[in-house]
Design goal:
This protein is mainly alpha-helical and 309 residues long. The chain contains 15 helices and two strands. It has one domain. It comes from Clostridium thermobutyricum.
């Protein structure tokens, strides 16, 4: 249960991704700046944490040893998935983007056969290919129904083009994030902890982040002071606190794909936190009708999934 609680805690801080990103987009800052600063500004904080723990050297050795794997899976679970989320926030309300992100729960389950888990057979530990947890898939599909209901309600006030632009990038990122995260855990094994993995993902995301800064500066000019402050808040909440806590939760559950799926399902909690944040900071209206029903379904599904054995 500790891994599930930590996962839920991370969802609260991850909700800043959708609220602050939407706030920055409303203020006119481009998605290139938003996506890049989330990682660039998080880097010094993560570095200091790992530095004072005396773990920077071992992290750099691990990255050097499996450089290509770190660049691939680290970027997928880092700036790669986040670029798509940032782009989608320009076309849909923050709470709707957050709800669509819950597809990652289904994605994580469907990806299970791509991974191996240790099992004890005849007093020997062997690796066995994972299976899709049917019970969790049913409950997670229940959550997905809630997401679809919310999408249907929002479709009444949005064009087909806006819906697709807001939904498709999120759907793609929902698969990239668990894929990259789980593959990177395989690469790291038990030698790299959640603090190091958070810093490592941020480090390998720097080349793309710098390219985005150049593009954002060329197309939209420099950002304002208030934009910088918002980006700093985003980096601290989402890039540092949320990432470390979520990585810590998934690390605790990595040898049990069913528990790992339960931890990933706790991210449905960010829908509730995003709704609250949108009302407080974006002066948004409280979801009504089908949207409210969809949120209730998501919450019920998340609770059931968390307690399912």
């Amino acid at each position: 249960m500790s891994a599930i609680f930590i996962g839920l805690l991370s969802s609260m801080f991850f909700s800043a991704t959708f609220v602050v990103t939407k706030l920055m987009g409303t203020g006119g800052i481009s998605w290139e700046w938003t996506a890049s600063l989330r990682f660039i500004l998080a880097l010094p904080f993560l570095f200091l944490i790992v530095f004072f723990r005396g773990e920077v050297k071992s992290l750099l050795k691990a990255i050097k040893k499996d450089f290509l794997k770190w660049m691939l899976w680290g970027n997928l679970s880092g700036i790669g998935f986040y670029i798509l989320l940032t782009m989608s926030s320009n076309f849909a309300p923050s709470w709707l983007v957050a709800s669509s992100w819950q597809i990652t729960i289904i994605a994580g389950l469907l990806l299970s056969p791509l991974f191996y888990v240790p099992v004890i057979i005849n007093n020997k530990t062997e690796l066995k290919r994972g299976k899709i947890p049917v019970k969790r898939l049913i409950i997670s599909s229940f959550i997905l129904i809630g997401v679809i209901i919310m999408q249907l309600n929002e479709a009444k006030t949005m064009s087909i083009s806006s819906i697709l632009k807001g939904f498709i990038p999120v759907a793609i990122s929902a698969f990239l994030y668990p894929l990259g995260n789980r593959k990177l855990m395989e690469v790291c094994g038990d030698k790299i902890n959640s603090f190091q993995r958070s810093l490592g993902v941020t480090l390998v995301s720097m080349p793309i982040a710098i390219i985005l800064v150049i593009i954002g500066g060329a197309n939209n000019g420099m950002i304002s002071g208030i934009d910088f402050v918002q980006a700093l808040i985003l980096a601290l909440f989402s890039g540092v606190i949320a990432t470390i806590t979520f990585f810590f939760a998934t690390t605790k559950a990595k040898h049990n794909l069913s528990l790992l799926a339960a931890v990933e399902s706790t991210q449905a909690g960010m829908v509730v936190f995003t709704v609250v944040g949108s009302i407080i900071f974006l002066h948004g209206s409280f979801p009504k009708g089908l949207s409210l029903i969809g949120i209730i379904i998501i919450i019920i599904g998340m609770i059931v999934n968390s307690f399912l054995k």
